[in-house]
Design goal:
Layout (H helix, E strand, L loop, with lengths): L8 E3 L4 E5 L2 E5 L6 E3 L6 E3 L2 E7 L3 E9 L7 E9 L2 E10 L2 E10 L1 E7 L7 E9 L2 E7 L7 E6 L6 E8 L7 E11 L10
Antiparallel strand pairs: 1-6, 2-3, 3-16, 4-5, 6-15, 7-12, 7-16, 8-9, 8-15, 9-10, 10-11, 12-13, 13-14
Protein name: DUF1349 domain-containing protein
Keywords: Plasmid
Pfam family, one: DUF1349
Length: about 190
């Protein structure tokens, strides 16, 4: 089911955003981020997140477009229970390049990066949550979906899922989100990349 971005609820609403039939376009505020403790010692819960409620057993996917150029520029999907249990996944700019990034947080944050493909100014991200397992995939074309991460994630009565964007080192990143859908959890085999 395709989602109307105007039906979401903001956590840390950006000053500049627009949702219409073409999608959601936002520009990040200054020094926004989601992180908890690990390595850096700080906790940040200031990133932009447009939340849509859902229960267990769902697949959400979204198309992300932007020019990611500054350290830690990031955009993608978030799944959130509360401020201590969440996941953000999508593009993140680090070490001079754009990577596909996942931060799984259950009390403390755990960060991983991958580059199954490098064309990250226009890509899709998919998250499936079912039976305590989180499956994250990414795609350049919406047809072939390499696996990024398979991780445990806490069971809850309800979750929130939706687009997220952060710029810990600056402001002014403009991101366009489109083709956002939430539906029943896909049940394909882990190695079926369709």
């Amino acid at each position: 089911m395709n989602i109307d971005f105007n039906d979401g609820k903001w956590l840390n609403e950006p000053a500049d955003w627009l949702a219409n039939e073409a999608g959601l376009t936002l520009t990040t505020d200054e020094k926004t981020d989601f992180w908890r403790e690990t390595h850096y010692g700080f906790t940040r819960d200031s990133g932009h997140f447009l939340a849509f409620p859902t229960g267990d057993g769902f697949t959400a996917q979204i198309r992300v477009q932007g020019e990611f150029r500054t350290l830690y520029d990031q955009a993608g999907l978030m799944v959130r229970i509360d401020e201590t249990r969440w996941v953000k996944t999508g593009v993140e700019f680090t070490d001079g390049e754009a990577f596909l990034s996942t931060v799984v947080t259950d009390g403390k944050s755990d960060w991983s990066v991958a580059q199954p493909f490098k064309e990250l100014e226009d890509f899709r991200i998919r998250v499936t949550l079912a039976n305590g397992a989180l499956r994250i995939q990414a795609s350049r074309d919406g047809s072939f979906w390499p696996l990024l991460r398979l991780a445990p994630f806490p069971a809850a009565d309800h979750y929130e899922v939706g687009p997220t964007a952060c710029t810990p080192e600056r402001s002014g990143l403009t991101v366009r989100f489109s083709e956002f859908s939430i539906g029943p959890a896909i049940t394909r085999d882990l190695h079926d990349l369709s």
